[in-house]
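Standup notes
- DV: blocked on the single-chain target, sequence here:
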Amino acid sequence: MAAEDPKYRTLILDLGDVLFSWSAETRTSIPPRLLKDIMNGPTWFDYERGRLTQAECFERVGREFSVEPSVIDEAFKQARESLRPNEELLGLVRELKAQFHGQLHVFALSNISLPDYEFIIKLPTDWSIFDKVFASAVLGERKPDLAAYEKVVAETCIDPSTAVFVDDKIENVEAARSLGIHGIVFDKQEGVFQALRKAFGDRVQQIKGKAEGD
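- DV (later): unblocked, structure below
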């Protein structure tokens, strides 16, 4: 008797602090805490939605935090240079895709400005694991707004109940869960890997059984 189709067939990953690590430590006058405060403000959120150019964003943020736009520009250039891929996670995703024999689709959904997206997508890492990368600046929506997830679901034609979403921010994961997507908070990497193997790894035998029964 053939096994049932696997429940989860789609993996959606965040980029920053999940697939890539980075440092807020720069050689500028902007301390790490201030850099993160800038990134958690409404002006930056609009920048990540593609509603502001980089120049407009840095000008506004400069006024809001009393920092010269040129200093902000340099701080974020240095932060970009600190980006490093999570090779262990990339390896796990490659392993799962291989085991699923083409039945596992992988996407990225990231809150990211257009300049940062254009920078990160050129980094020498294995982008081939993704069927598509969704940047908030291109979508015009950002997490945890439901419209961001809904646009991804609509464009990919996935069934939310068959998708797993991984993000380091609980509010983003909870938003995904509200749409029926299985959410995993990226906190301790070992625990996340175990959760992914439980969600996808247990299904490999089902796929093999189905293939053998056909």
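- Follow-up: DSSP finds eleven helices and seven strands in the chain.
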